[in-house]
Prior knowledge:
The chain is mainly beta. The chain has two domains: 1-19 and 256-271, no CATH class; 22-254, Neuraminidase, CATH 2.120.10.30. Helices cover 10% and strands 45% of the residues. The protein has helices at 3-15, 256-270; strands at 21-27, 33-38, 45-51, 60-64, 69-74, 77-82, 90-94, 96-97, 100-101, 106-110, 113-117, 125-128, 135-139, 147-153, 158-163, 173-178, 183-189, 197-203, 206-211, 220-225, 231-236, 246-252. The strands form six sheets. It has a four-stranded antiparallel sheet, with no helix packed on it. Strands 4-5-6-7 form a four-stranded antiparallel sheet, with no helix packed on it. A four-stranded antiparallel sheet has the order 10-11-12-13, with no helix packed on it. A hairpin with a 2-residue loop joins strand 8 and strand 9 (100-101). Helix 1 runs antiparallel to helix 2 (256-270). The radius of gyration is 20 Å and the shape is globular. 39% of the residues are buried.
Amino acid sequence: MCKIPLLITLGVVLIAPVAQGQLIVGNDQGGLKTIWNVNPVSGAAAPLYSSSGSEAEPWGMAYDGSTNTLYWNFSSTLYSSPFGATLTPTNLGMMTFNATSVNFVGLGFHNGKLYGTRNITTEAVYEIDPVTLVAKQVYVYPSTFDFGGLDFDATNGLMYGLSDTAPAGSAAGLYEIDSAGQSQTFKAPYPAGEFDIDGLAVHNGIAYYITDGPNTEQPSFYKYDVATGQLLGTIPSPFTGSGIFCAATWAPEPSSLVLLTLLGATALRRR
């Protein structure tokens, strides 16, 4: 048995980091629009796709880890792209409900389905088939809520939404949404002075509130601990223009060292 490949492989395994993640964000500002990859630790933002067209104006956004697919929508039109250092948008067509095109202001992905919310009739959580683009209502929540940002925490499968308004006795902020139980539970407030936040990404118990911009007026995104409802810090916004809508999701960061680990393990098995 040759021990050198084993030592090399073990060394690679030891130095290979756990794959990190990033925020994928965009808004519908005028002129040139960009979908950004934002490092949630350093705040550094890298462009993934830029255009003056509607394919760069996300109202909602979601990530499917099983196929490494990023989804986003402009009004009723759904786009997708393999997720990577750049995006190549594909127009998948119009989403429909009751055979009529329908828009969504937030998207999430869970168990092979997209989920969306609307801020006009009928306000509800909708399940959307990503192949047929046909939507169905799964939870018609009280219209006094205004769930714009929507996402699933892939680490626990829970759905969360950001609401700019709430019924009397409730507050604007982050809610856990239980579509099966037809209910929502308040988890964290909005930061002081913020009243309109439309983008949401959630991962491993941390909620990222994404503001519309511009960054001269809304300079920061916000990080909240879902369990405690406490503000953890801020991230600089890359949005240079004012948006009516914005969108966000969480996606993993590929690691070449992880790939190298797999290659090393394969070489060891062959020996």
